[in-house]
Each structure stands twice: as C-alpha cells, then as structure tokens.
C-alpha cells in the first residue's frame, strides 16, 4: 500500500524478472533451470561422492558403495533389463523383485541387520540406494564406516546365496562387518610418534647385592596352548 504509483496511470502487466524487457522466453527459462541444477550438482551431489571416497575403510568396500550408489550392481532387475532370463525374485528373501535398493534396505534380511545394529534406515522415502544412504547418514554420520562395511557383508551374503547356496545369519553378518572394520582400523593406525628422550623409561641394570647377601632374580611364563609353564631363577652373590 505504501508503494508510490506513477501519475500516468498504467495497466498492470506480467513481468518476467529474468529478462531485461520483462518478457518470458523459453531461452531465459532454460538458462534459469540450468543455472539452478548446476548449483545443486556442485553442492549436494559432488559432496556425496567426495564423502564416499573419504571413508576410512577398505578400498573394495568404498568401491561397492560407489557402484551401489550408481545403481550398477548385477541385481536381477538390472539383468532382466538387459534381457538376461533370470528369476526376478530376490535370492535372499525370495519375496520381492531384487533391486540394488531392495538388497540393502527393504529386504527382510537387510532390515534385520540394521535393526540389530540400531541403524534406522528410511526405505519409504528413498527412490534409490544413494538417496537412502544419504538419508541414513544424516542421522548416523559417525557410523558411516560401519554402515558401509555392513553393506559390503550384506552384498557378500547375497552373492554367497546365489553362487554357493550358503547364507549367513544376521548375527554373522554383523560380526564379520565389525571384525573386518576393527582389523582394518588396527592395521591402519598412524604409527605412534617416537617418545622424546625425557619420556624414555630408565634402563634397569643389574646391580650386585651387598657383601654377605644373595640376590635372586626370577621370571616366569605360561604357554597356554601347550599346557606348560616355565620358570627361571638366578641367585648370585656380590
Ligand atoms: Zn529380499
């Protein structure tokens, strides 16, 4: 109401703000959309890929997450799309059509795995694995390595079922994932810095006892696997 209006009384008209003359054109509309999607792809999408490659985890696990996010794992829906004659059912639950998203999120087996480790996945909101992972990591950012590791073992279980008709239990999947991650982390810890001279423990040197007394030095060890123990002692005078 406070905008001063021109004295020359003009009709209101539509004005397209992205054109100097205020006239809409497909060209200006297209430019606007492209500029928007460019901005989007350089913030959200690129940072998603960067995040994956920064996971402190086995390279083959990072690679699996990357392939799953690109939807290029050989699941039965992908094979059928390429006209390979395979049963479309998920080989693990035998209930639904297998897709990358299905294997890792709504498949009954995967659901139980996530439930066991207390990770809430959001299958209903996601259209693909990448969206689902993004949504899950929003709430479980600090668990990204174990989540990636679990995906890898879920995929390993799926392949075992298809190729060797063996399958793991949910607990076995969780145990394998945790152990693999722990071993990898232990093996990849940065080497501890050499202690400064002042922190070095003092060298203990043997000193003879005082005259007319004896000194006893003793050490023992237990060999559990052989059911044996060893004991050594040395008694010396001055
Ligand atoms: Zn399934």
TrEMBL record:
Pfam family name, one: zf-RVT
Protein name: Reverse transcriptase zinc-binding domain-containing protein
Species of origin: Fraxinus pennsylvanica
Residue span(s) of domain Reverse transcriptase zinc-binding: 24-114
Domain of life: Eukaryota
Classification via InterPro entries: RNase_H-like_EbsB-rel, RVT-Znf
């Amino acid at each position: 109401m406070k905008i001063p209006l021109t004295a020359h009384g003009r009709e209101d008209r539509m004005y397209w703000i992205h054109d100097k003359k205020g006239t809409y054109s497909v060209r200006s509309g297209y430019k606007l959309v492209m500029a928007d999607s460019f901005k989007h792809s350089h913030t959200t999408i690129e940072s998603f890929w960067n995040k994956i490659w920064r996971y402190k985890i086995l390279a083959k696990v990072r690679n699996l997450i990357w392939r799953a996010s690109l939807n290029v794992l050989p699941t039965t829906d992908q094979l059928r799309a390429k006209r390979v004659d395979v049963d479309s059912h998920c080989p693990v639950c035998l209930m639904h059509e297998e897709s990358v998203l299905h294997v890792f999120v709504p498949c009954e087996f995967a659901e139980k795995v996530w439930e066991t480790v207390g990770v809430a996945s959001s299958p209903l909101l996601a259209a693909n694995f990448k969206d689902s992972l993004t949504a899950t990591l929003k709430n479980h950012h600090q668990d990204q390595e174990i989540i990636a590791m679990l995906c890898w073992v879920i995929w390993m279980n799926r392949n075992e079922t298809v190729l060797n008709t063996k399958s793991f239990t949910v607990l076995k999947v969780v145990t394998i994932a945790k152990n693999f991650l722990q071993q990898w982390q232990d093996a990849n810890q940065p080497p501890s810095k050499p202690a400064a001279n002042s922190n070095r423990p003092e060298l203990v040197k043997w000193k003879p006892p005082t005259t007319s007394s004896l000194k006893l030095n003793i050490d023992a060890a237990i060999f559990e696997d052989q059911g044996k123990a060893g004991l050594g002692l040395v008694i010396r005078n001055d």
